[in-house]
Amino acid sequence: MIDLTVVPEVRERAARRAAELSLVIPTFAQMRSPELVPDSIKDQLSGTGLWDLHPANLFRVTWRNQPVSRGGGFGALNYLEFPPELTGVPARVAALVGKWFPTGAHKVGAAFGCLAPRLVTGQFDPTRQLAAWPSTGNYCRGGAYDSRILSCRSIAILPEGMSRERFEWLDTVADEVIATPGSESNVKEIFDKCWELRRSGRDIVIFNQFDEFGNYLWHYSVTGPAFADLAAELMGPGDRLAGVALTTGSSGTLASGDYLKEMHPHSRIAAAEALQCPTMLRGGFGEHRIEGIGDKHIPWIHNVRNTDMVIAVDDAAPLGLIRLFNEPAGQDYLARQGVSSGVIENLDLLGISGAANLLSAIKMAKWYELGPGDLVLTILTDSMDLYRSRLVELTAAHGELTKADAAGIYHRYLMGASTDHMAELSYPERRRIHSLKYFTWVEQQGKSASELEDQWYDPGYWENIRRAGDEIDPLIDEFNQLASQGV
């Protein structure tokens, strides 16, 4: 659960630090609706780069930043709609765009959602404690970014097999970078490193996105309403929101689907994973190359009972798509298939997990035989800015992309996307997946079996987490008031 118990002495120290830095903490309401952001903050942002380590950039933790690298304000939602010439389905498919967050990925929001409750209650002391951010990539980048703005020390933990761009940037922002063995699906190794840090005697607070409900709450409170606004913008009379299709990673984004189900009760949540590591689909394990999603376990914050479908995506497909979308032969082939230049120019907004999300949405549309009046939503977590080195590696391994290669990728993975490796979840299937949490969280990570049962049987469990959003904003306001008074 989200503990909002206030520790006054520590909160006062944190507020003094905020005062020294001229730091104001944004509320969840301001992240949902940036028109609520004070003009004084907007003035600061007018000359500030999107990735700058500037306190005002915390207010850019929103889906409504102007899509510019410097000096932008707030405006419409950043999204991309994919035409049938690209998806091969008549249903509409659209995605929120993560590139225009600080650090180039929406995970900075999930990190903020975990940090903010601890900071404004005094459960984390930025003047004395280190913040550790275990991750498969973007979350630790967001955590290191937030930590540096707070002028506190941070430890970024991620698998050694992640892209070179991530490590190069982290070396300039985090105080320590720990590369754990393996790649995207080696989450246990990350957890093992967290236990090692706990036992080290150092004063460390570990913000684990896989079990911190602040991650869930941020997506429920900020991403969910953004999706709802996007659906209202795109749908006409008689249209239907079919649901969301999202790769699981830490499962935080799935909370946006919980919000949408309250607004659109017939919408569905599809959770996707790599076919090479089919934990939800088959209780399986393995290695895969879809960077940013971690497997071999079910995250503690995944509300499995609310999940309708599981989709497994072959990791060769998103790797093929990033070549198709970004290399000249691929772009030329897409143009010949009728994809507009405006869409092609924006396909670099999809990173590897974004391409996997697109494929998941296509497969969901095919499974339910969705038509032109149906809308499927997904997320582009980051962009190709974080994966250019992967294109170089793929070219070195397979040669330059040819017209024949582009045709093969287009027809195999987009037009030929199938309903293989999918499952619509019955009650027993959801229960089976939920029960997999036991082996990671109760046996290894010290959670209680009784709380695991509460997650399944007690509807108030998840409702209490969602209601915490109403309690956090007043605590943020109190913290900002203390800081403004210099405590």
Topology (SSEs and partners):
Elements: H1 8-20, H2 28-32, H3 39-45, E1 79-82, H4 84-87, E2 92-97, H5 107-121, E3 130-134, H6 138-149, E4 154-159, H7 164-173, E5 176-180, H8 187-198, E6 204-206, H9 213-234, E7 240-247, H10 254-263, E8 268-274, H11 279-282, E9 309-313, H12 316-326, H13 328-336, H14 341-344, H15 352-367, E10 374-380, H16 388-398, H17 403-415, E11 422-424, H18 427-435, H19 437-442, H20 449-457, H21 459-484
In words, what does this structure look like?
- The structure is a single chain.
- By secondary structure, the protein is of the alpha/beta class.
- 47% of the residues lie in helices and 12% in strands.
- It has 21 helices and eleven strands.
- The strands form two sheets. The chain has a seven-stranded mixed beta sheet, sandwiched between helices.
- The protein is globular and about 65 Å long.
- The chain starts with 7 loop residues before the first helix and ends with a helix.
